[in-house]
Amino acid sequence: MARFLRSAGSTFLERPMGSVAAGLVLATLVAMAGCSGSASDQPNIVFVVLDTVRDDVSALADEALPDPMPAMSSLAEDGTTFTNAWATAPWTLPSHASMMTGRLSSAHLCTGHSPILRPELPTFAQLLSGSGYEAVAFFSNPWLTDEMSGVMRGFRSWYVEARGDDRIHAMGGSQGGSASNGNIERWFDEREPDRPFLLFVNYLETHLPYDPSPDVRTERLSDLPQNDIVSTRWAYEFNAGVHDAAAVDWNRINRLYVGDAATSDALLGELVAMLDARGLYDDTVIIVTSDHGENLGDYGLMDHQFGVFETLLAVPLVVRAPELLKPGLRDDPVMLTDLFSTVLEVAGATGSGELPHARSLLRAPADPDRPLIAEYAGGRPALVERLLEMNPDLDASAYATAYSSVRVGNLRLTVGSDGSHRLDDFATQADEMLDLETEGRAAAEALKALLPGVVQPARDIEVSEELEEELRSLGYMP
Question: From CA 451, how far away is CA 444, in angstroms rounded?
Answer without folding.
Answer: 11
